[in-house]
Design brief:
- 35% of the residues lie in helices and 30% in strands.
- The chain is of the alpha/beta class and 214 residues long.
- It has three domains: 3-68, Histidine-containing Protein, Chain: A (2-Layer Sandwich); 78-143, 2-Layer Sandwich (Histidine-containing Protein, Chain: A); 151-213, GMP Synthetase, Chain A, domain 3.
- The strands form three sheets. Strands 7, 8, 9 and 10 form a four-stranded mixed β-sheet that branches. Strands 1-2-3 form a three-stranded mixed β-sheet.
- The chain is flat and about 50 Å long.
């Protein structure tokens, strides 16, 4: 597929996505690599634009340069956002209480600390990025590493059960909780799904995704 056709597909997908206003998002494409630029009203819209683009067939990678221009209450300061983020995290049953530190600078949230599972890391980020007034998020939460023997077989089994993944073209290596993914997948979305399957296993401390798209 040529870049001009791919650009139009991305524009159509962004316009079709109900969770964002795409009128101020620009799209450029070079050799299958899509760059998103412009501005949106909230951080969740920024994430939605990137995810929608990754679902388009033919997209090899996404460079996201969208700016968040929040039209909300200008009186909402960093301290207010930090208090609200801490309160939200305290209510999430999947997030370990007292293990996550929240800092906010210029409405940009940074999470730090240690958790036991990748889903806890993801749940914490998902909860605070939805708060109004947030411009962006840096997730420094660390998944505590543990050694494992059966992680590779568990990950391969998860890939085989997925209807969206061609597991024959994916190779999995595990070394002391560190997972390396190699091979080739059809779309950026499939690449994300394979990585998500690896992170879903217990005792996985890191995932290096070397999968190519094409």
């Amino acid at each position: 597929m040529d870049d001009t056709s791919l650009r139009q597909l991305v524009l159509d997908e962004l316009a079709f996505e109900p969770s964002l206003e795409a009128a101020h998002i620009g799209v450029s494409v070079s050799n299958g690599v899509v760059t998103l630029w412009g501005h949106v009203r909230s951080y969740p819209e920024k994430i939605a634009a990137e995810k929608a683009t990754q679902h388009v067939k033919g997209v090899r990678a996404v460079a996201e340069e969208i700016e968040v221009r929040d039209p909300g209450d200008p009186k909402l300061g960093d301290a207010d956002i930090a208090r609200r983020a801490a309160a939200v995290l305290a209510w999430i049953v999947t997030v370990p209480d007292g293990h996550i530190n929240v800092s906010v600078e210029d409405r940009w949230i940074t999470l730090s600390g240690d958790v036991d599972w990748q889903y806890q890391r993801a749940d914490a980020a998902e909860a605070v990025r939805k708060l109004s007034g947030v411009r962006g998020l840096t997730n420094l939460l660390r998944v505590l590493p543990y050694g494992t023997v059966s992680a590779r077989k568990q990950i391969e089994g998860a890939l085989k059960r997925s209807a969206e993944i061609d597991e024959d073209n994916v190779q999995v290596r595990v070394d002391d909780g560190r997972v390396t993914l190699e091979g080739k997948v059809r779309t950026v979305h499939e690449r994300k799904l394979v990585e998500r399957a690896a992170w879903a296993m217990a005792r996985v401390s890191s995932v290096e995704n070397r999968l190519s798209v094409g």
